[in-house]
Predict the structure.
Amino acid sequence: MPRIRQADVDEVKARTNIADVVGERVALKSAGVGSLKGLCPFHDEKSPSFHVRPQHGYYHCFGCGESGDVYSFLRAMDHMSFTEAVERLAARIGYTLHYEDGGPAPETSGRARLLAANAAAAEFFRAQLVTPEAEAARRFLGERGFDPAAAAHFGVGYAPKGWDGMLKALTGQGFSREELATAGLVSTNQRGGVYDRFRGRVVWPIRDVTGQTIGFGARRLYDDDKGPKYLNTPETPIYKKNQVLYGLDLAKRDISRGDPKRVVVVEGYTDVMACHLAGVTTAIATCGTAFGSEHVTVLRRVMGDDDTSGEVVFTFDPDEAGQKAAVRAFAEEKRFNAQSYVAVAPEGLDPCDLRLQRGDAAVRALMDHKVPMFEFMIDRRIAGFDLGSVEGRVGALRAAAPIVAEIRDRLLRPGYERVLARRLGMDPTEVHQEVQRRAAAAGAEARRGTDGRQAAAAQPGAAAPGDTGGAAVAPPAATLAALPRTVDVARERDALTGFLQYGHRVDPVLFLRALAVPFHHPALEAVRATLEATDRSKPGWALAVVENTPAAYRTLAGELLARDFPARDENHAVASIDDLARQIVLGAIAQRKNELLGAIQRVPADSEEGRALRVQLRDLDAERRRLHPED
């Protein structure tokens, strides 16, 4: 397969702002001069430790250690090859790639082909919506308040009733039946025949957070359709229903820019459409599955959920199914830093019906009648008890106390104890005691589970902590956290941080002189030596330093490039780095001066060697005065 020319690979990376690419998946905010941060997309975390340096095209997570450039980010997030990552970014910026030996662009494969097939299918469905056969689909949309402009905005289409309309259209565009099957666009019968998965249905494209179509949701229209009311794309290499949120591609910008940041979780495609058209543009929905932990992770990254100022509002039907959905969401609520609420429309209307019957303003007003998730759950737990009797109140307390006991916030829990006491008409002290008892019981159960796991690990034959069975153990990688807390190490650490981040702006003579001074700490010295040996005339040299640093110190090099440099702005940062470089050189001069003074005392004053040593001493003093003229 022809390879992309290295010059093009470098040019595409240089023209791409890594913050734009990462920012499509992670809410980034300023983290100091030249640095952005957000919640890491590679592991689950409560506080942001994922840093991006756009100027260097580099990211690094101080929590899990993941780091790299824009290509490695795409490859890790979308499971694509290096070539596919370069081609994706080249298409994004409109850059024409060239291949070695003048060869043509290679055939794309894997994930790129599946995305292309889904994009072609989405276009096919959209085109079908204006055909005579699609009258039922247009009527369905119109009856729910969606005109052609709304359908176009959300990419809604129609799957014709025939067995192979889409199959013929896409194979005619060069897609194989195997690719269409892998993308979940066609199904196979017992005899090996292939046919369209979606037939005679309204179809919504389901897009990932970057706006690429990865699957579809389809709603039954005809009475003779014996399939499920809603049919979604099955699990594919690019469609994971537990991670997909319909409408997130449209909502993400307003979610991240909101004050407070708010996500509205609704139950279906038409509810998302109704909310957005009514002005609630942060609405999203799950796709054929319950709201779960992986959805929480996706939302937290988009929200930048590192404080308690955000809001997640769940809208549920007040029927039994809706209440069960609330219970499931409550199980995940504790994973949000943002405050979670429930909003139930009057008369049990979903947002789509609410908009139809009462207008856009009623949908917007739904947010004004939200109640905290804990309060909603308390009310649900006590709803079946006769609070007019002692037995009923005691039973309700026993049912609701575990909910309050699960509140870990020591400021929130007393408030909800008072809420429960008011609901039950009971003494707050009695409620507090029952909540405390439930919390203690839950803690004891958790400890028993931990003790059991520890006991199992201690059984004969079980490896003791740190036991490697005699195998050689590699020393832990050097990190910032492992560096000694001394003044000299801090100076070397900060100097390397500045050199990697702003070396292109430091006085070149001073920079070269400081780089030539060996560092005292071995890990920092390894990074310094790699930096000194790197060709800094080429773009991206700072990344090259990280990549070329010996493996044991590579994590440290990445952390130095990504960490915050303490300064008010870039100009102050450069001035501070100049000063650090000067201190390093002056320290080396002072050390060398002491060595020369000792050597001079050991040789005759009028000897040639003594005269040569004094010349060196004079030159050192001259260099020191240039660097420190006030002396």
In short: Residues 460-475 have pLDDT under 50 and may be disordered. The two ends are 65 Å apart (CA to CA). The first helix runs from residue 6 to 15. The chain is about 50% helix and 10% strand.
